[in-house]
Amino acid sequence: MPKVTNIALAGVGGQGIILAGNLLAQAAALSGYDVKLAEVHGMAQRGGSVITQVRFGEKVYSPTFGKGSADYLVAFERLEALRHQDILADDGVLLLSDTIIQPITTATGSAPYPRDILDRLKKKCPRFYSFSAEYKAEKLGNPKVANVLMLGVLSIFLEEILEAVWEEALELVVPPKHLELNRLAFAEGRALGNQLAHSQKVNSN
Amino acid sequence: MKVLLSGNEALARGAYEANVKVATAYPGTPSTEILETMVKYEEIKSQWAPNEKVALEVAIGASMAGVRALVAMKHVGLNVAADPWMTLSYTGVGGGLVLVSADDPGMHSSQNEQDNRYYAKMAKVPILEPSDSQEAKDFVGLALQISEEFETPVLLRTTTRISHSKSLVELKDRQWTPLKKYEKDIEKWVMIPAHGRLRHLVVEARQKDLSEWIWKSRINHWEIKDRSIGIITSGVSYQYVKEAFPEASILKLSIIYPLCEKQIRLFAGEVERLYVVEELDPFLEEQIRALGIEVTGKEIIPETGELSTEILRKAFSPKEESLFKNRPKPLAKRPPVLCAGCPHRASIYGLKRLGLKVTGDIGCYTLGALPPLSGMDSTVCMGASIGMAEGFTLGNEEYEGNTVAVIGDSTFLHTGIQGLLDAVYNNVNITVVILDNRTTAMTGHQEHPGTGKTLRGEKTKAVNLSRLVEALGVEKVTVVDPMDQEKFKKAVEDSLAYEGPAVVISRRPCILKVKKYSEPYQVDSTKCDGCHSCIQVGCPAISVTGCHVAINQTTCVGCGLCAQVCPQQAIKKVGETSA
């Protein structure tokens, strides 16, 4: 079967994952691919664990994919990265916007928030990159655009989607009054992604 | 050009293209966005109903008037609308009528995962089941065409994965369809027994005609590939099958009821082994087996939850799995929680402090049943809290005076009124707390008859809850702000002490509408003695840090509930000096 690219976006309800998913799916659609996006609304939005899946390729059947089959996992919170890490394929790339949001279970002290998450992620995913996306987004004007910033990073990996297409997708998905800030965030993310790609080349030389 | 649409957006677009004139619904995940999208099409009269039964009745009226109508609801909504639904099958339609039932296998946001395909079988009405957004859109038009041709309502069944997944859709313009002009016909529209008996014969004949038509229409299609395995499937399961077994022969049903016997037999004859892949109950499987055809289904396919490509692969070729899976310690769970500043938290916490038995209902506040609040004893269905509180006290007098029903404003207007009427009528000594946050919050802030706005955002009359419950005969009605814990406590205690049914309207708008009350609060660690009383309110802004607690300054919206709860007065608003 022709190759389908599988991308999972994981985090906490309220982090803008639905918008990020829409942006990605829209960019893939504008690039001429068949696309499916699976998300769940309702109860999951109230601060719960959230995962959105985007698939694109010549022909996509199932809207969802299972463990061990994601090419990319973009995680927006440490514990959620660990929770969903097993969705990645062996050579899958994990991009983490590194922040900690205590779930109610650890906030009340009824369960521990693991301290060794980054080490565990490093061990499990050879291609693991983490960013202070929220901090960078805050410097741009609003920590909430960390979602679009992370997609800027991801866009460097997805060479099949051209930069101009992302621009167009942003215009379709982001409300006009927030567009400028989101453009900045996306560009910042691309710059980060480029640095990463560059350093990788240096390393492999 | 193709556009990316969710199944729900596609259904709304389908209604637009197919010349639907009236669309109604009560919000419910995963169906809510159908009407929220529909409202963009000005040609369609779209409106929220207080519940699904009314929504369907409005659609039936529109159909009787000769226009095309769509009514949408979540699966359990059809339980509420089942009464008109069953008889609508007998009357049939004027203009086309399609009922969208959005089922929720896996219970992403529901209290059960009932399989609503049985509602079509029980009513002897055809069902269409789309497998992606394109079909979701196209099947609305198809359903209306079938509806008019066979004078029957049509059930269009989606599931969460169809309603909430996005895929590419080719759009068309709105088409013209003729008005089915209303002419008085009491044998059709007045279902007294004498007429009903005649209409039942029509229903049975219609079933046969439909089955024939399905055969000719080629709406169900098959793909013959490798003949060793043939799979009958529909809806999103079709996508999983295509992905897991690209070589298999497939009969993809788009109309899944009534079954076209000829089609099933022919397909079964083409393949060596026949399988049925369907989510939830063996709906197709049982009917195929009843034809005397050998088929494998639920022996290998799970009967609970959603299916997936992975599940199908495992089901068809199970590998022996090791007993020892080297399972790591489970991670801390992240369940959904009431938002920081949510007024429901104050109400539920206030009731918990009084040590009451609480029969609950359906809404955001159901989350208050979970730890650490743990402030609810039951949740069954929309409106159940009131009748259950009544029965609970009738069943055991010990519970009289310490049981309250808790129900949201939208839920009370949906199906709570009748329960309260019952308590008044039978003079049962219960207290009902209506959590009036002025919106339908759980499904994403839809308007309802108490908010003063319509689906279109136009101003309208808002029902006055106090006057409504007084009109039902409740003599003890108190309106209170739950954020004032002392007043709330007194209101509930007085109501419990009152002889006869009493209502407390706990009124404070949803925090997501208000956004913020004031500056955040903070903990004075010199005063905090680590008693963790504030932790018990279950606010996502408060967390344990060592012996003390801390308040997240970005998440806190300044509701001040924790400050009221703290026995040491260690929690103060930022900028306030502690005395």
General description of the model:
The complex is a heterodimer of chains A (205) and B (579). Chain A has eight helices and six strands, in the order βαβββαβααβαααα. Chain A is of the alpha/beta class and 205 residues long. A six-stranded mixed β-sheet of chain A has the order 2-3-1-4-5-6, sandwiched between helices. In chain A, α5 crosses α6. Chain B is α/β, with parallel strands linked by helices and 579 residues long. Chain B folds into four domains: 216 residues, Thiamin diphosphate (ThDP)-binding fold, Pyr/PP domains (Rossmann fold, 3-Layer(aba) Sandwich); 96 residues, Rossmann fold (3-Layer(aba) Sandwich), CATH 3.40.50; 172 residues, Thiamin diphosphate (ThDP)-binding fold, Pyr/PP domains (Rossmann fold); 53 residues, 2-Layer Sandwich (Alpha-Beta Plaits), CATH 3.30.70.20. Helices cover 36% and strands 19% of the residues of chain B. Chain B is built from 21 helices and 22 strands. In chain B, the strands form six sheets. Chain B has a seven-stranded mixed β-sheet, sandwiched between helices. In chain B, strands 14-15-16-18-17 form a five-stranded parallel β-sheet, sandwiched between helices. In chain B, α7 links the parallel β6 and β7. The longest helix of chain B has 25 residues. The model of chain B has no long low-confidence stretch (mean pLDDT 96). Classes of the chains: A alpha/beta (205), B alpha/beta (579). Chains A and B meet through α1, β2, α2 and α3 of A and β1, β8, α11 and β20 of B.
